[in-house]
Design goal:
The complex is a heterodimer of chains A (487) and B (238). Chain A is an alpha/beta fold and 487 residues long. Chain A contains 17 helices and 18 strands. Chain A folds into 2 domains: 3-123 and 351-485, Rossmann fold (3-Layer(aba) Sandwich), CATH 3.40.50; 124-349, 3-Layer(bba) Sandwich (FAD/NAD(P)-binding domain). In chain B, a hairpin with a 5-residue loop joins strand 1 and strand 2 (133-139). The chains are: A alpha/beta (487), B alpha+beta (238).
Chain lengths: 487, 238
Amino acid sequence: MFPFFHRGRSLIARSFSSLRSDQFNVCVVGSGPAGFYTAEKVFTGMKAAKVDIIDRLPTPFGLVRSGVAPDHPETKIVVNQFSRVAGNERCSFFGNVSLGSHGVSLSELRQLYDVVVLAYGAESDRSLGVPGEDLGGVYSAREFVWWYNGHPDCKAMPIDLKSTDAAVVLGQGNVALDVARILLRPTAELAATDIADHALAALQESTIRKVYLVGRRGPAQAACTAKELREILGIKDLYVHIQESDLVKSQTDEMELENSRIRKRVFELFAKRAASHRSNAIKGQRELHFIFFRKPDRFLPSDSGLHVSGVRLEKTSLKENGESGRQVAVGTGQFDDLKCGMVLKSIGYKSVPVDGLPFDMHQGIVPNIRGRVVNGAPPEHAAVEHGLYVVGWLKRGPTGIIATNLYCAEETVESILEDEKKGLLISDSQKLGRQGLLQILENKGVNYVPFSGWQKIDSEEKLRGQLKGKPRDKITDWEELLRVANA
Amino acid sequence: MPLGYPVVLTLGHLVRLLLGYLVRMPLGHPFGLLLGYPIRLPLGYLVRPPLRHPSVAIDNMLGLDVPIDDKQLLNFEKFSNTQRGYYEGTLNNYLYYLRNRTLSTTSSDNAQEGSEQQTEKISVTFVDKDGEEKLIKVPVGMSMLEAAHENDIELEGACEGSIACSTCHVIVMDVNYYNKLEDPTDEENDMLDLAFGLTQTSRLGCQVIAKPELDGMRLALPAATRNFAVDGYIPKPH
């Protein structure tokens, strides 16, 4: 009985909504994996929806372009699929359009579109909150990644790789392993990737020989994936040091490993490597040291007081957290200093709020129920912001792989489709959509970059790359990007 | 009766008996008339094993992945796209048995068709997240990812088969077929680590290459959303 009733109801709702479905306008803010997967799912779910994707950069694809390491070209193949989505006649890309007063504001977008999906990710960093964090030579891993990936905002970063032989990376996740690998990998290998020219030049002159990867917990809790770990352990002619005593497992560790296939495989890689390595590096050999059970206490200044010269680490031990069942690291009051001239903090990205958007400062996400933006703490006091949705890192925090966004987008689009069927997205006034956006951009004098503009940048970069024997030579300058796009 | 439970003689038994005599089959094989049929017929043919969603099935690996009987399963797979009646299933099962054991010329159109196509193409059934099935023919040598795309099956392939993502994750629904595959490489396992709804018979679709032994294989596409299992999935009866 119920299914028939339900079907009948949704049929009625559908026929109502189809009256205006030729006018359904969706705006996606952010053109990374979350944004493009959302657009793709909207196209399959709503036959007549139009999707406009805006991005503050002239180039699309978000972290696939500025996050994925240059020596992971396979991971970037996904842009083929995103380009097919962008090629859909119902899809338009507007690069060089930022969300806010300089471009288009959130409230303007909500007036123009039936649905606004925020997919702008996490463009800031968590901070440690320990003394000396603002010393010279202390960077977030995100900045370093943007720098070597040619993000136009980090082109001019004063990364100095020539005045020290040691770098400390705080964190042991995949981003930490990425930056460590870029620092340690033979530059001849990097030269054949799409790494930014300025970064390659700096790395070729780098004096850094030792990289320390510091984690608060042990090898059983390391946040990296087996693929990344296998890769860094496989770097040619690299001395890897893992303290064998760190590999002793507690009973709780054993249980944790038993419950997680990936943690177990990662641990096995550590154990195998620790058992096989020599006790000392050969002179001149590059070194990678895994430092477990240590947390940063403070950054030590150099004699000038301006630059970092080391990190004071506090030894930790693991304690079971009653609530989550996970083990957390607590300080033991024992300290040791690690000398270094550069620190990369790889402790997590952070999203940035915009005007008029509910934001959970503590978690660094937009409060939501299955992608529906809500005002107030879900679920009890949640007031749904009609027509406003969120997807990707802004929705669930800065974790996961590209594919995570596929499932994330599916959930958000499912919510959109449900709301549309229920008639929640019907407004009194006619939404102007693309037409209205173009009007606003014209009024504000914003020179947007369409997808064809990106394609010009793309061909230019590939052409320049060919001359240098690399897949692509990235244009890293704002002005130049816009010039090429508008050529 | 020494076994102490009633045996109902059905038309199926008679057909089997008759055919058995025709090809001089011994009746007294271990799972013969008395024991085997009352168990096998209802399980294999009368009631199709309920199709559980893979995410639910992780906890029920045994129910989904271990067939009651190898041969029976092969046959069940082979005709999975057709509406199987009680007799059809029984007959086909028997004919399959005949073809393989006695080289009898007795054969149905269905069976002949199957044997001819095995040289070039194999049958593979994809079961999507809603339990909908699609039977496709896959040329030997082609990966399941390519095959899915050629047949408009929604299987993502973000890295286009370069073992750099986990989006073409498929679940081999029968452990016997799973065992016929080459072991996954470290690289494939690294990606499977990250797959959603991982099961013990999970593979990357791009690494499963069609070969004759895989004819009749069934592949499930894993849960689409993280909350799928929580929502409560009710398997659709077919």
